[in-house]
Please model this.
Amino acid sequence: AAFSITTICMFPSEHGRDGTPEASEPAVMPEPAPVVSAASTSLTEITTVEKLRAFLEATRGTSLVAWRCHFDRANNKRASKSDLYKALDELGHKGNDIPVLWEALDADGCGEFTLQDIDEGQADIWQHFVDWCKRSFAGSAHLMHKVGGEPQAVDLSKARFCQGIRNQGWDRENESLLFDALDVNRRSKLSVEEFGWLDVEIKRLHRKMEAKQQALVAEAWQDRQKKKARALAAEFRRHLLKRYGSYIRAWRVALSPNDGPSLTKKQFMKACARQGWNAN
Model:
């Protein structure tokens, strides 16, 4: 990295050359992302996805129950092309239109699709429930204890589950639908096994919070370093003016006596040492 007299004169500081505070540049706000309307989706794609949704409702009652029991039992929140083939085979779909259906579901070419791509309303219900569970319980065992109403609750019937989550503060209805979506093993009862996804979600949330905290610490450290650099630069300029009267004379006499246009870091450090500047 090169260092020149321009660097000295133009080094950013909290004050201008006349001693008055410099006005900060206005922040540049990112442009909003373009809004994509439903009308931009082709009729073929809408028809294909609508047929899938109708098929899921006909076979499993709702898109959410079909999604949880056949597409995404582990609550990974996404499914692949192989998941699509497997799920439709389990549901007895014998058509040869799966490649066309896949093209509709994978319109962005990412190789995955979500419940949101099939049924936004059902996806919102499930996401609200997942978020509520993360806020309300420390994990699957804690949920079983609180919803079951006793420390050693092993299984939850549908009636017990529906009443239990209402007692714990769930107020968005659809309790019966949620039970059916959780009952991926089709046992008509829920155990801690059916809530294993909650432990994964909470670990993921903790990692996200830790990463955010680390980012805040790193950002604060960088801010302190920038302030320190600005203060040192201002002090260095004052030192040059006091000792040499002008930046040009300081450059030619002290920093670059051979009138070189720039200095390397090593040359700059040696020049500072020669004139007794020892600020760290």
Summary: Residues 13-47 have pLDDT under 50 and may be disordered. The beta strands are 2-3, 263-264. Residues 196-244 form the longest helix (49 residues).
